[in-house]
Specification:
Layout lengths: L2 E7 L4 H9 L4 E8 L10 E5 L5 H7 L5 E4 L9 H22 L3 E7 L12 E2 L9 H20 L2 E7 L9 H6 L3 H13 L5 E6 L8 E2 L33 H4 L14
Helix pairs in contact: 2-3, 3-4
The structure holds 1,4-dihydronicotinamide adenine dinucleotide and D-galactaro-1,5-lactone (15L).
């Protein structure tokens, strides 16, 4: 198999559970980690429970790893303290361990919320300045910058995949535009891990939906071509073609409902 050991963080989460079996062909051993219980290790698996905010534990977690799929952390707008621990301190701990252990390739589950303050009439690409829509989005921008620094300084290659909405089905009209199917996610990860050179790449994780907010031309070297589309769910949201700015910030800006929820200081 191409890798000896892939580390998957966030393995107990929605995407982690989806990926668990599907990444097995890529490595002899998949090391599954989360703060929460991921259940017992199966064949070809190792389980390490770990808080990303714990520096020593993260260093131990990385031992023997040659590629990382980083899906752990707070995945939505939340009190800043939690975001700071998991997504900011956690990210710093992770990259220091990645550097110390000689990991060569990382995929970071970034988010469309790095760009949530662009308008729904904008077409956003990877070179445009980040415009996060809350502290969660800011923490993902931090992750993108930190991984850029570790590439420039040490040559550690990272693909920051700005995931749209990866759920079994779109839950609202916005998700008709941001939908990413499970198969397309797996393919984006496969391309990110196996493309010859990725340097530091920012890519958009989105299926081939009819309406588009993101231009992926800056990440074509990954070779990722989405096969699915939200059109299969058109019956659920027949009016989504009319998704247009109105007197409602959750419609004016790409971040949708996230615009209303932060920042949360407690
Ligand atoms: P999730 O919330 O279901 O899973 C995240 C996992 O991280 C959880 O199992 C949680 O226990 C773990 N975690 C949280 N704090 C931690 C800590 N301090 N130490 C160790 N583990 C910790 O989220 P989901 O949907 O599976 O997303 C996975 C990743 O993808 C997240 O980083 C999220 O920001 C990103 N993403 C997901 C999108 C989606 O559509 N599902 C869209 C954009 C980004
Ligand atoms: C995200 O970044 C979140 O992790 C996910 O739960 C969804 O809210 C998604 O963005 C989205 O924008 O739909």
């Amino acid at each position: 198999k191409p890798f000896k050991r892939i580390l998957l963080t966030g393995a107990a989460g929605g995407l982690g559970r989806l990926l668990r079996d599907r990444i097995k062909p890529w490595a002899d051993i998949v090391r599954l980690s989360d703060l929460a219980d991921v259940g017992p290790a199966g064949e070809g698996e190792e389980v390490v429970q770990c808080d990303l905010a714990d520096k020593a534990a993260v260093l131990a977690l990385m031992e023997g790893v040659d590629a990382v799929l980083h899906f752990g952390g707070i995945s939505t707008e939340a009190p800043f303290d939690a975001i700071m621990q998991a997504n900011i301190l956690g990210m710093a701990n992770l990259y220091e361990a990645i550097h110390k252990c000689g990991v060569k390739r990382v995929v970071f589950a970034s988010s469309n919320h790095t760009m949530g303050f662009y308008k729904t009439t904008d077409l956003v690409d990877a070179d445009m300045p980040p415009r996060p829509d809350g502290m969660y989005g800011v923490s993902k921008v931090f992750g993108e910058s930190l991984s850029r620094y570790y590439y420039d300084r040490f040559g550690i290659e990272t693909v920051c995949l700005r995931i749209g909405s990866c759920f079994p089905e779109p839950a609202n009209p916005r998700m008709m535009i941001t939908y990413l199917s499970a198969d397309d996610l797996v393919e984006a990860l496969r391309c990110s891990l196996f493309a010859a050179r990725v340097g530091h790449t920012i890519a958009f994780g989105v299926s081939d939906n009819k309406a588009k907010w993101w231009d992926d031309r800056k990440s074509r070297h990954l070779g990722f071509v989405a096969k699915d589309s939200s059109t299969q769910f058109e019956h659920k949201f027949p009016d989504s073609g009319n998704y247009a700015p109105a007197d409602d910030i959750t419609i004016t800006f790409q971040g949708g409902g996230f615009l209303l929820t932060g920042p949360q200081y407690n």
